[in-house]
Amino acid sequence: MGTRLKILTALVLALTTASARAREQNRAAVAETPRAIGVVCEGGLLMPIAVRGQGAWRSLTDEDKADAGAPLKLTGEAKSLPRDGWRIVPFDLNVSPRALRLEGPGLLDDTSVCADQEGFRTDAPTNARARRPTDFIGIALMGAVTFERVETVQHLPDTSSRRIGTLITPLVQALEAERVEAAPAGKRVPSAGQRARIPVDLDNMWRYRHAGNDWYYFEAQKDYSDELDTGSTFVKGWMVTAVSGADAALMKVRVEVGNMIDAVTLQSHALGVLRVDDRVVWIIDERTYETRRFELVEIPQSQIAPVCVLHAC
Question: Buried b vs exposed e over 5-42: b needs ≥16 C-beta within 10 Å?
């Protein structure tokens, strides 16, 4: 009986050890699998955005070296990305996610609607509609990354979004006045009369619920394009409110006052949210008259400021 017990104990220990070793190997395999993201344009061109490794995101384009207005080139790391193992999550809800394959080398495709960055031709579905006003039909993913949509709430469809909307106008007015007062001599900024006359426009606002909080990203402006002696005012920021509460807090904001036409942001769009390593990361497509870049912004579990993990935001 004692011998049988020893044999049984040894067998249980061996199985436990083997199981633990297998779990470790699986975790290591997941960690070693490349995790990358990109956008897929109409026509099927995939524009790589970033890759994640060793706990950080790395850009897959050379925007730091590119000349103003020149198309972005792919980095060496981007050019060596695996051709298989990708999948596309279309914005068109009528088209299902599916596997995606990169075809051929990276190139600047003059026939594509997305000609401001190098990318890869793919076998993307041809029946997926683009998410207007962008030319993107979906998000491309590789590895242990998932994608979720954000709500567009620019038109304030419910009580929560209306509460946030009522805070934005006085916020923009106050931030604009503060920046004008601090502006250096000679900078063309709106006068008090102009500021009182020009309304605040809420250009875009999106919402995503995470860890019991509703996170809002908004973009507002005061358009002084009809005024010859000043630039426009742009305010972009993050506000958060608890799902169960009525208070809202401004968590991060970017303000530009007196911004002339050649450098202003033309359009920004929140494309969605990535879930990776228990983190929530927004993807924002930002275009100016000279260039385009994709920003990644990590949203925390609690009500503290978001963190820009790819490019300034």
Answer: eeeeeeeeeeeeeeeeeeeeeeeeeeeeeebbbbbbbb
Q: Which among 128, 119, 134, 139 is positioned nearest to 46, based on CA atoms?
A: 119
> How open is the CA angle 185-191-197, to the nearest 5 degrees?
160
Q: Identify whether the C-beta of residue 80 lies closer than 8 Å to the C-beta of residue 93.
A: no
* Residue carrying the six token digits 């051929």: 104
* Helix (H) / strand (E) containing 247: none
Cα separation of 137 and 131, whole Å?
6
Domain extents in the chain: 34-144, 151-310
Rg (alpha carbons) of the chain, rounded to whole number: 24
Other Cβ atoms less than 10 A from the Cβ of 165: the count is 18
Burial 71-98 (b: 16+ CB within 10 A, else e): bbbbbeebeebeeebbbbbbbeeebeee
Asked, as a colleague might, if the bond just before 125 is cis with ω within 30 of 0, I would say: no
SS3 240: strand
Q: Report how far apart, in Å, the C-alpha atoms of 79 and of each of 72, 76, 85 are.
A: 13, 5, 15
Residue 308, class by beta-carbon neighbours within 10 Å (0-12 exposed, 13-18 middle, 19+ buried)? middle
Per the structure block, which two tokens stand in for 249? 């807090």
Element (H, E) at 276: strand 265-276
Tallying the residues shown for the chain, one arrives at: 313
Query: What pTM value is reported for the model?
Result: 0.84
Structure tokens at 74: 């792919």
For the chain of 313 residues, list the mean pLDDT of each consecutive stretch of 10.
54 50 48 84 95 93 77 93 96 95 91 88 92 90 96 94 95 95 86 92 95 94 81 91 87 83 66 94 86 90 90 81
Q: How far is CA 115 from CA 26, 36, 70, 112, 120, in A?
A: 40, 21, 10, 6, 12
Residues 282 and 264: beta-carbon distance below 8 Å: no
**How far apart, in Å, are the Cα atoms of 197 and each of 80, 190, 194, 222, 261?**
54, 10, 5, 10, 20
